[in-house]
Hints:
Distance between the termini: 62 Å
Helix content: over 70%
Number of domains: 2
Strand content: under 5%
Shape: globular
Amino acid sequence: MTVDVRTLYLILVFAAAFSAMQAVFGLVRVAGDRRKVNRRLTIAERVGGISELVIELRKQRGLTASGEKAGRWRWLTDLIVRSGVPYNPRTWALVGLAIAVGGALVGVALSRKLAGAPVGAVLSLAIGPIGFLKFMAGRRAKQISLQLPQALDIIVRSLEAGHPVPTAVALVGREMGDPIGSEFGLAADEIAYGATLEQAVARMSERCEHPDVDLFAATVRLQERAGGNLTGLLKLNAQTVRERHKMRLKIKAASSEGRVSAMILTAAPICAAAFIQLTSPHFYGDVIHEPFIQLGLGVLGGWMLIGNLVIRKMINMRI
């Protein structure tokens, strides 16, 4: 059996390139994980004391210096805090301006009129940043549900070793990555700043707005007021959070068919219209100005929106 030298050479080149890509990806991932773990510690190195650290961490979450949520639009403030994106008003203003300008240019290009500029700018500002914040908040909530049982296990082991509760909470802030590490780290800093354990955990629950974190806060509040074995309660809490996560995965698997159907039914007419517009621009271009055609397309778009809302209601099961 003879082996082609050229084929063997190509196989070796592919193997070397694949190994190099894996190495680069591993280094980038490890560097990103270390940067996330050390993010709060990096901020602690820049500030002078606990009070400045707590204020800086709160400002980066979009909170006031006292830890309260500020702003006229409470829903937007809640979304900013839940997303965990570092809040920098100047940077956010520049990014928003760039998005508005880009949306205005797209509006002018599509409508071929200057009147489309403000419409494009408003739509881009409404869809782009808010959609990004919602995506980041959803991803952060999933990470919290995955990391919280491990954090509770660390607290339980620390308490069983004889450490006080604030030390156990601070240990989670040092050993675990974001987002749960930063949340527990901020809670530990607030305790060191003068807050009680119940107050710090309650504020963490308000920042996260996550049912599992709410359960943890209720457990701590119950133990603080009624007494009892905190270690046993936290063990039961961790088990409950794990069971909740399993149930969420089962619900996601059960509703996967509906979600895929919604995506296909939504994307199919849009893709078909885009394909027709690219291949035969005059197919709709000659009659698009007719009121009957515009009314019909509007009705079809409305029915599509209603269908998506109905499917979302059917598959959006909560526990």
